[in-house]
Structures are given as C-alpha cells and as structure tokens.
Amino acid sequence: xxxxxxxxxxxxxxxxxxxxxxxxxxxxxxxxxxxxxxxxxxxxxxxxxxxxxxxxxxxxxxxxxxxxxxxxxxxxxxxxxxxxxxxxxxxxxxxxxxxxxxxxxxxxxxxxxxxxxxxxxxxxxxxxxxxxxxxxxxxxxxxxxxxxxxxxxxxxxxxxxxxxxxxxxxxxxxxxxxxxxxxxxxxxxxxxxxxxxxxxxxxxxxxxxxxxxxxxxxxxx
Length: 221
Known about the structure:
The protein is α+β, with helices and mostly antiparallel strands and 221 residues long. The protein has a single domain (3-80, 121-204), classed as NADH Oxidase. It contains 8 helices and 4 strands, in the order ααβαααβαβαβα. The protein has helices at 3-9, 23-33, 52-67, 84-101, 108-119, 138-157, 172-179, 212-215, and strands at residues 46-51, 126-133, 161-165, 185-194. It has a 4-stranded antiparallel sheet with strand order 1-2-4-3, sandwiched between helices.
C-alpha cells in the first residue's frame, strides 16, 4: 500500500473484531512508526501496549467508572471550549454518526450504547499508549502526534485499522496501575488497534474534510 492510499483509507474504526493482534505485527508497526521525526532527534516517546487479559481488566475498570459516573481526568487536559467553527464540525460529526446508526437526539438508550463503546475501547484486541516525560513541553506532544499518525499508517500497511481517542486515556490512574507506567510519564494518547468489524454499520461512517480553498492560504504562486 502506498502512502496516499493509506492516508485515504485510514479512518477511526469504532468496532473491532475480537481477533488478536500478533506480537510480531505490533512490533513491526511500531518499528516502522518510530522513523517519525522529532525535535533534535529527541524521540521523546515511551510506548506501552496492552492486550489479552491485561487489556480486558483495564476495559472492565473503565466500565466500572462509567457505571459509577467517575469523571475523566486525562494527563493532558482537554480544552474547556472550542472556537465556534470547530465546535460546529464536532456537532456535525456526532449528528452524522447518530444518523447512520439510527439514533435520534432523544434516544437515551442509543446514545448510552455509543458512549459505552468508547469505554469498551471499541472492542479492540490491543491498545497502544503513547507517553512522555512530564517535564516536556507541547513541542514533544507535537512529536507524539507525528508518531501517532505514523502508527496508524503503518497499521493500514499491515491490514489493520485504528482509532485514536482521548477516551482511551481518560483514566490515567487505571492505565498506570494495569500497565505499570511510572508516575514521571504523562500518558498522552491511546490508539486502539485491530481488524475492523465489517458488519458494524458504524464502520461505514467517514467524517468529511474541509475543502482546500477553506484550509490552504497560498501566497506568491
């Protein structure tokens, strides 16, 4: 698969098969992805991968927090607000997904099911967690973003799909406990990894992209 094909076919997979991901495949993906650039070749990332019984225990702990209405508290704080245009795109995303799944605005049961999918890590058989030293700055978060995209593209090249989601790191205390991540590392983002479930209608959804005329500002051409 060439790079353009991988970019065009990558999407946020929200329903995975239970098929396990082989250790050799995970390492192959990460080895390729760590060719990502970083400031001064600092390579600030520390990578933890959860699968099998470890991931299942973490999944159940997340669901327990959902049941007990424990608020998420990721190490990297979530924005308190968005500019209006960005907020509208998020609202359009949720409306589009809900429409595809046949979930009406007042369908509390359907919306609860959508929420639970996040806490179940979309049923993924593996989750990759990207961490970095707590003393680092947003410049290193940028480097982890580059690594994240590289992981997702390398996964496509290996016939797998991904979902990068803040909910995967909503409870860093649980992740630290189950994956033995030291306190001096911030848990920045999680990437669910596995084979997509083609029978789940949610996997047919593709979020739209802004037009180039809206995004790109060319000068001097």
